[in-house]
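Worked problem 6 (solution included).
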Amino acid sequence: MFLVQSGWVRFCLVCILTVFCALPLGLMAETGHVVSPSELQAQAAAAAQARQQNVEKVRSFLSGPAAAEALKKAKIDAEQVKNAVAQLNNQELADLAARADKAQRDFAAGDLSTRDIALIILGVAVLILIIVAVR
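Solution. The predicted structure is:
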């Protein structure tokens, strides 16, 4: 009698395991974490817009008269630096944009001299060129 029952138990276990293995794992997963395509598109658009704003901030920082003079004195091609800005990754670009904003605010507030801003501009330009050259 025990052998008949253990055979029946084995058969039931095999059937249950077969059902679990046959079902795709996606059917058993929760669907609460799924992001809709419209949300993905909105996030992608926001990231692209933030990147474009950061590119414009850095380029405008490098386009000012102080920047043109500092780059000219250092014999660095301003157009090459401005074109290289687009090749930076999002994190590097966000970091440089934040630094450019801070430098412009400090300069406008009188915390930085023309010499200080020129050194910052040269540092940013050299950093951009190094990052692009390493890639």
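Discussion: Residues 46-135 form one domain.
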